[in-house]
Amino acid sequence: MTKYIFVTGGVTSSLGKGIIAASLAKLLQARGFTVTIQKFDPYINVDPGTLNPYEHGECYVTDDGAETDLDLGHYERFLGVPTSQANNVTTGRIYQTVIQRERAGDYLGKTVQVVPHITDEIKRRVLLLGNSEKFQIVITELGGTVGDIESLPYLESLRQLRWELGTDNCLVIHLTLIPYLNAAKELKTKPTQHSVKELLNTGIQPDILVCRTEHELSMDIRRKLALFCNVDVNSVIEARDASSIYDVPLLMLKERLDATVLTKLRLPDRREPDLRAWKSFLDKLNKPKTEVKIALVGKYNELPDAYKSIYESFVHAGAVNQCKVKVTPIHSEDLETDKLKEIINLLKEHDGVLVAPGFGERGINGKIEAIRFVRENKIPFFGICLGMQCAVVEFARNVLNLPNASSTEVDRQSESPVIDMMEEQKQITIKGGTMRLGAYECDLRKKSKAHAAYGVLKISERHRHRYEFNNQYRAQIEAAGLIPTGINPSSDLVEVVELKDHPWFIGVQFHPELKSTVETPHPLFVHFVKAAIDYKRKKSGEK
Ligand code: GLN
Questions:
Q1: Which of 159, 325, 338, 344 has the most crowded CB, counting CB atoms within 10 A?
Q2: Has 513 been annotated as catalytic?
Q3: Atom of ligand 1 nearest to the CA of 467
Q4: What share of the chain is helix, strand, coil (3-state, %, to 5)?
Q5: C-alpha–C-alpha distance, residues 213 and 242, integer Å
C-alpha cells in the first residue's frame, strides 16, 4: 500500500516547502524507496502556463507537456525522476474537471458543492499517483499557508484522507517559521503555536514540525514546541538556513527527518541512505578549482526565479567541471539604450553569454546586439529557445545581409521571416496549453558540437514555443555558416543550430535547462561551461 505524506505551510509563505519535500524525498529514495512528489496550488488558473514570469517565476514543462509550477523542477533535480501533469494540480483544474462533469450530467441532478464534490476530486487527484503502483511513497505539497481561504478545501480533503487511509499510511508535516527577535535575542515559538492551532481548527494534527530558523533550536525550544503543538520532541525538526538548497537533504538527515517519517509510517528502516553521488556532487561544488563568469541576457532579470532552471543547471554543470560559475544577469533592454557601450564592455569581461528564453518584442534587439558581439568576438554563446531564434535573426541580418530579417513574433510583416509561427499554431486562438509543449525527439548531426556534448545522435528534449526556424531559409543560412545540427525526425523542424568557425556557438529551440539534475547535469551546460573555461584560459594566455 502506498504511503502518503503531506507537507503544509504555516506562519508565512516562501519557507521552502518544495525544498523540504524534495529533500525528504531524496533521503527516502536513497534508502531504496520509490518516491514521487506532487504539488497542489490553490489558485484559479488551470495551470501556471498563462502566468507572467514576474508573477510566478519560471513555468516548468514536463515530458508529457504539462506547464507546471517551478517546484516540480526541484523535485526532478533532486530525484532524477521525471514528473508529469499528475504531479501538479491547481484549484482551477479541479473546478474545471468538476464543472465539465456537471455539464456532462454526471452528477445526476445533484447540487454540486465544495464538499463533497470538490474535495472528492482533490482526493482523487492525490491518490492518482499512488494508484499508478509506481510509487511506495507519495509526498504531496499543499501550496499556500494554513489560514488562507483558498487552502480550506485542500485541508478538508487531507482531513478526510487521513481518516480514510489511517494514521499509519498518512502523515502530515507542517513547515513553519521560528523567528528570531533581535531586541529580545530570542527565538519565538508563538507564531508556530498559532499556526498549529489554525491547522487543528480544520481537524488536522500535524505529526512532524519542520521549523525554519536562523539559529539553532535549543532543547528547551524543542520541548516547548512539542508540548504546545502535541508532537513528540523527536518530531520537532530544525531547518536552519542553508547556503545552498543542495545542503538541505544532509541537514534533514542529521535531524533524522527520514528516520522519524519511516517510524511513523511503519516502514522498514532497512539501511542508511546511500548518498554517495549526492555527496560527491557537493564535494565538487564546494571545492571549485577555477571560476568563470557567464552573462545571462534576459528580460525578466528582476526576478531570478524566472530563470530558475537555468541558474540551477549552471550549478550542476559547474560542479562536474569543478568550476564556480558566476552568473551575471544582464537586462536585454539595456542593450537598446545609450548604455549599450557600457554593457558591451561588461560582456567583454565574461567568458560566455547565454541568451534566455522569452516571449514578445521587448528586449529582442538588445539580445540581437549581444549575439552579434559574441559571434564576432568568438565568445562562447548558448541561446535557448528565444535565444536561439534571436541568433538566427542576427545571423540573417548581419551575415546574410537581410536587414529586415525578423521573427514574425516581433514583426508580422517582416520581408524575411527567418523565424515564423509553426503551421499548426496558426489556427490557434486560445492561450492556455496550446504551444508546442513537452518532449520531442531530435536527431543530431554527426561530429557536430551538440553530438560531442551528448555523445549520442538521438536525443529527446522539452519544448515550449509557437515559433520556429523557417525552413525556407535553411539552405541559405547553412551555406553561410550557421548549421542546423539538430532536426526533429518527424516534423523536420530545426531544433539546434551551430556556428561554423566559432569555438562554441549553439542555439537550441528546446529547453535543456529543464532536464539538468544533480546526478545527471545537462551535457550542453557542461560543455558550455567547459568552453567558457577554455576561453578564459586562452584569454589570459595560459596553456
Ligand atoms: N517566444 C518564442 C516562441 O514562442 C520563444 C519561446 C521561448 O523562449 N520559450 O517561439
A1: 325
A2: yes
A3: 10
A4: 45, 20, 35
A5: 10
Weakly modelled stretches of the chain, pLDDT under 70:
542-543
* Cβ neighbours, 10 Å, residue 214: 11
Å from CA of 385 to ligand 1 middle: 6
The residue length of the chain stands at 543
| SS3 annotation, 470-532 | CHHHHHHHHHCCEEEEEECCCCCCEEEEEECCCCCEEEECCCHHHHCCCCCCCHHHHHHHHHH
For the four alpha carbons of 105, 107, 111 and 114, in that order, the dihedral sign comes to: negative
Sign of CA dihedral 364, 368, 374, 377: negative
Q: Is 511 a catalytic residue?
A: yes
Helical segments of 57-151, H only: 71-79, 91-103, 119-131
Within 289-399, where are the H helices? 308-320, 340-348, 364-376, 386-398
What does pLDDT average to over the chain? 95
What's the gap in Å between 524 CA and the centre of ligand 1?
Answer: 19
Rounded-to-10 torsion of CA 190, 192, 195, 201: -80
Report the distance separating Cα 67 and Cα 48, nearest Å.
Answer: 6
Q: What is the pLDDT of residue 516?
A: 98
| Interval 87-97: pLDDT, tens | 999 999 999 99
pLDDT score, position 370: 93
Residue 338's pLDDT is what? Answer: 86
For 394-493, list the strands marked E by DSSP.
Answer: 405-407, 416-421, 436-444, 458-465, 467-469, 482-487
Mutate to test the pocket of ligand 1, among 386, 392, 411, 424 (most ligand atoms within 8 A of CB): 386
Partners of 446 in the β-ladder? none
Grid-cell match 568557425, residue found: 501
The verdict on pTM exceeding 0.85 is yes
